[in-house]
Fold this protein.
Amino acid sequence: MFGLPDITLIVFGVVTIIAIAALVYWGITFKGHD
Amino acid sequence: MAELITIAVVSLYFLAMLGIGFWASKKIKNTNDYLNAGRSLGFWMFVLLMIGTVCSGMSLLGVSGLGYKMGWPTMWEQIFVPLSIAFCIIFFGVKLHNVAKTAGYVTVQDYLAHRYQSPTALRTLAAVAGIIVSFIYLVGQYTAIAIVLIWLFQIPLWLALVIATAVTMVYTAIGGLYAVAWASLIQSIILIGGVLIMAPIIIFYAGGFTHVNEYIASVNPSLAMPWMPSGAFAIPYIFSFAILLMVGLACAPHVINNVLAIRDVKYFKWAPLVAFLIYLIAMVLLKFTGFAGLAMVKEGVFSLPNVPNAGDFVILYGIQYALPIITLWAVFAVIVLAAVMSTTDRLMLTIGAMFSWDIYKKVLRPDADDKSVLLLSKIVVVLSAIGTMLLAISPPEMLASLIWMGIGVMLATFAVPLLAGLYWRGATREGALAAMSLGLVSSLVVGFLNYFKTVAMGIEFAKIPMHFSFYAFVIAILAMVIVSLLTRKTPDKILDETQTGWYISK
């Protein structure tokens, strides 16, 4: 797909999705205090 | 000769920046206002300040340049650099902001001095190391300004440097972080908007996403893979690259000090995700223009100048080909200027803060009044601008390597004392001093051995599988752990005051 080998799409796709999921989890669970 | 409209576009941008400086100067009442914008930054101001600080002019030209040279394996840079903002906010920002509000820190060195009970030694070492690294970084930024102004106006290098330095210096010196933050807001919008509009046009002219990928894979299959088979951008190198960019940039003095300026800690909730996504999208597009440029050069559409860093020119030539309208080139020049100035202003201010606050006020003259510290901050901003401009007029040949070395030295020097200080109650003053000094020295030594391809102790330093900073980072970790275990523990009172422990926020 997109002229790229499958491994390139899978590796970058998985890493990006994990990063976004982790940051969404942080946003949902962060309470913080001031 | 540049057309009148080109001069008008660039002049308008410069005038806007100076206007921000004069407006911001009226808000400055004391040193905290000047260095931390009175801890008043809102969500978007903070997010765009972080993006503007991390995204420099060298990264704008260098990102597409690296893509042109080595293809998809370099795309990791576009994941790790945006993650550095998230790392900085999550692992440093939350705690530092909370403690700083109570303890009244002006710089991160204040935290180190408090946490490690080292008001002189560690503070001075951190400030001096920070100034050296910021200086190296600053010289590289001016070189990027010069490349663009010379390309657009065909003016001499010295004149390009004087113009760009003078504008940045004036608004930073008079307006402090208020001016830097407001300038970054505008600069980041120009930068992101410009990339989002211009990059797809260049990619379209190169034949589109799929064609570019297929073409670069036909030139060399490794260029379309996620990593290189060996050497730079092979798997071990990418691992060390992740640490270098995510952690090294996050603890860089000009980046980490931004977390002290936010108004409310609740902005840290979504700032990591928002900053990551904005920066990721813009930078992936930018990297892809480098791939598109490679395809166009190989297909003979245009050729690059015969210089060693030809890749750094690929986006400029891509724009010339895809958008043959000189006014748009001026707009692109403003985009690069925005990227450069959003980093240089923060670096100058950081140098000013480290010298006037950490060295002058906290070490040399503790009885100095706020007015004299504020004045000295402004003087140091001016001197650092002039000093780096003079260095940039005849830049050292190893400039690009020096910039990478700068981030590597930041990683080896600051990451371990900061992370151990925030999260490990066993970390001691002696451990921090050992980690910081050994990290600094070992990163400089391994970095130079690597750059000069030295063979020593049976090791070929040119062929070490990871980025040189990783080895220095490991040395700093070992120094921190071993020395801390052998020395007297920090009192619980200090550890509680500085919220030290294995948590981010209670």
Q: What stands out?
A: Chain B has one domain: 8-395. Chain B has 19 helices and two strands. The radius of gyration of chain B is 22 Å. Chain B touches chain A through 32 residues (CB under 8 Å).
